[in-house]
Every structure is written in structure tokens, then in C-alpha cells.
Amino acid sequence: MAKDDRNAPPSLDKLDARLRSARAEAERRSDRREPDSAAPPALVGMAMRAGVELVAGVAVGTAVGYGLDKWLDTSPWLLIVCFLLGAAAGMLNAYRAVSGLGMALGYRPGTEETDKDASARGRGDE
């Protein structure tokens, strides 16, 4: 009996050729795009600022509490209270930095009409 060619597995040469063409196509596609793995520098800077705000708030609160405890001999109560206040202040500062609320005193982004109306009221042009 002769071997049935319809049921024979494809040759390894055909598989090798298909793999090579798929790899070449993947390399062409990857050459066209830029890698997305690196975060933009602005986001890295914002993350660093938020981390520094958190650590600074806790550190300053703890230092103030420790100093007051030593001065007033109330150990550890002022340390605990100032630590909690410093942690809360650090979180608030980090939130303000990330959301953009702390950019300037009294700054509130608005529409152009609102800004024009406010400047007209300030000059007395009604």
C-alpha cells in the first residue's frame, strides 16, 4: 500500500519557512513603533513629587512632635498627635500636587467667559 499524502504531517522545511516569515513580519512591525515601556518624564516627576510630599509631611510632623515632647516632657502624646497631623498634611499636599490645586493662591481654572466677567468686575467696567 502506498502512503497517503493527505494524512502526512507537513514537512519541517515548510514549518521553518513559516516561522522565519512570521519573525521577519514581527520585526518589521516592531521597527515602526516606538517602545511604550518608558513613562513620560512629566509623570515620573509628578510621582516623585507626590512621594516627597508624603515623606516630608510625616518627617516634619514627627520632628515637631518629638521636639515638643522633649521640651514639655509630655512623651509620647505630642509625638503621636503631630505624627498624625503630619501624615494628614502630607496626604493633602500630595493630593494638591497631583490634582493641580496648589499651583497658586486663589487659582481656580475656569472658562474664558468667567475669566472675562471677573476681570471686568474688578475694573468696574459694567
Task: Note the topology.
Layout: H1 12-32, H2 41-72, H3 77-99, H4 112-123
Helix pairs in contact: 2-3
Task: Please sum up the structure shown.
The chain is an all-alpha fold and 126 residues long. It contains four helices and no strands. The mean pLDDT is 79.
Mean pLDDT score: 79
User: Helical element count?
Assistant: 4
What's the N-to-C terminus distance? 105 Å
- N-to-C order of helices and strands: HHHH
Give me the secondary-structure category.
Answer: mainly alpha
The main β sheet shows up as: none
Uncertain segments are none
Shape: elongated
Rounded Rg: 32 Å
Helix content: 55-70%
Strand tally: 0
| Percent of sequence in beta strands | under 5%
Description:
This protein has a domain at 41-101. Helices cover 70% and strands 0% of the residues. The protein contains 4 helices and no strands. The longest helix has 32 residues, at 41-72. The N and C termini lie far apart (105 Å).
Key descriptive features of the protein:
single chain, 126 residues, mainly alpha, 4 helices
